[in-house]
Amino acid sequence: MDNNQLNQLTLPAGNLSVADEKHAILAAIIATSDDAIISKTLEGIITSWNPGAERMFGYSEAEALGRHISLIIPPDRLSEEALIISSISQGNKVDHFETVRMAKDGHQFPISVTISPITDRSGKVVGASKIARDITIYQKANEKQGMLAAIVDSSDDTILSKTLDGIITSWNKAAEKMFGYTEQEIIGQHISIIIPPERIQEESFLIGEVSKGNKVDHFHTIRVAKDGRRVPISLTVSPIVDELGRIIGASKIARDITEQLNIEEEKARLFEQVKELNDKKDEFIGLASHELKTPLTSISGYLQLLSTIVTDAKAQRFVSKTRLQVKKLSMLVADLLDVSKIEAGKLRFAVERFNIRQVLVDVIELFSHGHNNYRITLETNLAELQVSGDPNRIEQVINNLLTNAIRYSPGTNQIIIYLVKEAGNVKIGIRDFGIGIAEEKLQDVFSRFYRVDDINSNISGLGIGLYLSHEIITRHHGKIWAESEPGVGSTFWFTLPLER
Ligand code: ADP
């Protein structure tokens, strides 16, 4: 109780002797105390019961007076009373005895109690006074603190704290394990004990940030253990603030990232390996297609010569069949060569202005000859449309799309080609009524060597036509995409900007 509270006590009016006044003050203190103040005889009969006791235990003064003190003692603690009384009988005080007592409603709570003997004028102990304080709050705080301490102790991460001057003030078990210093060894030491000399300047940066109230998150660095081992860690440093809001230190949480780094290194190594293999494969494709091209060119030349020499009709038919197959082979080889050029960044374009409608008409005518079972129609109301680009490469794209439209629509006989002008672009569509492509694979078909294997296991191909087409169109600043429905057909669209 402080002086202010004392000043507020109301004393009985009238003239009082010094002794009476003292008595009255004491009575008032007892009446206003937050603590339970109780007195009892040596037999345990309650002889006084203040308002604090009423509040704490729920019994009014009238209810408690004359009752045995066991009224507020939980049955399993009744034996305590005998011990207390025996101590009191010998004139001893029991100080800050922590136990549990029971309220009228049956709930039990922790108290800290001080019990003193009451003596009569002759000095004989006649009873005991008890001052009891409910310590539920303290116990809860203690439990919470204990729990926090247990968390810190059992953490796999190093948790330590230090003052703003860098003096280590706490050090958990994980820190002992990570750095090899025991708590006794390191508390009071300067944090630089675990900082490698070449990183010592990091400390002033970290403390600088913490002093400004900032947290430093996931700071990757290296610290050094007692045995000189270097430990790569990820560090989180936060300010420690006192009740007044002043920054008084820093807490550090450090995680050993050796394993993480190993995994990253391994990933980087594998990535390098895959890249190397991939480069080798590209190199091989480039070399192989180049080597194939030379003999193919001379085969073509000799076949052409042969076709002018042979007169026999049967032989003439065989030569022309061979020439067709050699042409297909040459186109495959040319595609492969293009792929390796793309990978090496060497695909070049000869840009000029040309009439895209004418290119479509020429390609359609050529295909209609070779595939007279198909009716290939051009739907457009444009007579002429000039674009700039490499006409041979654009023709290559149209060829690829038309070849696919025919190959992937067995048993059908119609292909429609659209040519439209749309918002500064020319848009061309090649529509078939064939097997179609499932929605989730529509984007993949433009990847290198990708083939939708479930639908075209009996249609041969390398999976590079659409990849090349995609490259050519995007390099022309256009777009290419497909719309399709399995069993209904596909339309492959591409755009080219009209003016650039
Ligand atoms: P290829 O036809 O040589 O396999 P492409 O790159 O031209 O290679 O095509 C990739 C894949 O896309 C093909 O394997 C096929 O599964 C699918 N595809 C392409 N065009 C069509 C189409 N018109 N209809 C159905 N599937 C198609």
What does the model show?
The protein has helices at residues 3-7, 18-32, 51-57, 61-64, 78-89, 136-154, 173-179, 183-186, 201-211, 258-309, 313-343, 356-370, 391-407, 465-475, and strands spanning 36-41, 46-49, 94-102, 108-119, 125-134, 158-163, 168-171, 216-224, 230-241, 247-256, 352-355, 375-379, 386-389, 414-422, 425-431, 480-485, 489-497. By secondary structure, it is of the alpha+beta class.
Short description:
The chain has 14 helices and 17 strands.
Oligomer: single chain
**Beta fraction of the residues?**
25-35%
* Number of discrete helical segments: 14
Poorly predicted segments: 1-9
Keywords:
alpha+beta, Beta-Lactamase, Helix Hairpins, 4 domains, five-stranded antiparallel beta sheet, 42% helix, disordered N terminus, binds adenosine-5'-diphosphate
Lay out the secondary structure.
Blueprint: H1 3-7, H2 18-32, E1 36-41, E2 46-49, H3 51-57, H4 61-64, H5 78-89, E3 94-102, E4 108-119, E5 125-134, H6 136-154, E6 158-163, E7 168-171, H7 173-179, H8 183-186, H9 201-211, E8 216-224, E9 230-241, E10 247-256, H10 258-309, H11 313-343, E11 352-355, H12 356-370, E12 375-379, E13 386-389, H13 391-407, E14 414-422, E15 425-431, H14 465-475, E16 480-485, E17 489-497
Parallel strand pairs: 12-14
Antiparallel strand pairs: 1-2, 1-5, 3-4, 4-5, 6-7, 6-10, 8-9, 9-10, 11-13, 14-15, 15-17, 16-17
Helix pairs in contact: 10-11, 11-14, 12-13, 13-14
The structure holds adenosine-5'-diphosphate.
